[in-house]
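Lab notes, practical 5.
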Amino acid sequence: MPCYSLEGLTPVVDPTAYVHPTAVLIGDVIVGPGCYVGPLAALRGDFGRIILEEGANLQDTCVMHGFPDSDTVVERNGHIGHGAVLHGCRIGADALVGMNAVVMDKAHIGERCIVAATAFVKAGFECPPQSLVMGSPATVRRELSEQEVAWKQRGTAEYQQLGRRCLASLVECQPLAAVEAGRPRLGDSGFRPKGQGA
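Output from the prediction step:
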C-alpha cells in the first residue's frame, strides 16, 4: 500500500488488519486489530490524527482527514460505507455511516447509530446512542430498533470476515481473456442488505 511517514510519524497497521494495496496512509494514522480498509481509501494524518479502532471498516474511496490538533476516530466495530468523508469527527462504537455521507469537524455520532447514505452532518453535531440520522443538514429522526442494530452488527461482521479472507487469499493477478466454463461463485453467508432477500 502507499504508506508515507511525515515529519517522523509513520502510520501504524496492526498485523491482523487488512489494508488494500491501493489505500493511502499518510503520517499520524493508526489502524487497529481486525480492521478492513478498502480500495482507494485515503487516511491523511498530515494535520490531525486518524484512528480506526478494533474491528472497524472503512470502505472504498472513503476519506478520513482533520485539522491540526484533532482526532478523526472510528471507534470499535464502526462501519463506514463507500465514499463517505469523515473530517475531524468521532464515530461511536458499533455505529454505521452510510455511503457518500459527510461527517464534519467535532461532530460526534453516538454508539450504535446509523447515519443514512448521502447525509450531511454539520460541524459540532451531537446525537444520542442508537439514533437514525438523516438529511442535509442531518437531524435525528428516531431511535433505532434492536433489530436494526442487529442488522448493522451482522453487516460489520461480514466486513471483518472479508478482511480475514483478503489476508488469506487476495493476490494480484492478470485478468482472464474469457469466462471459463462452470465458473464458480464466491461463498455466500446468506446476509443481505436491508430490504433484499431473507
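Observations recorded by the TA: DSSP finds one helix and 19 strands in the chain. The mean pLDDT is 94.
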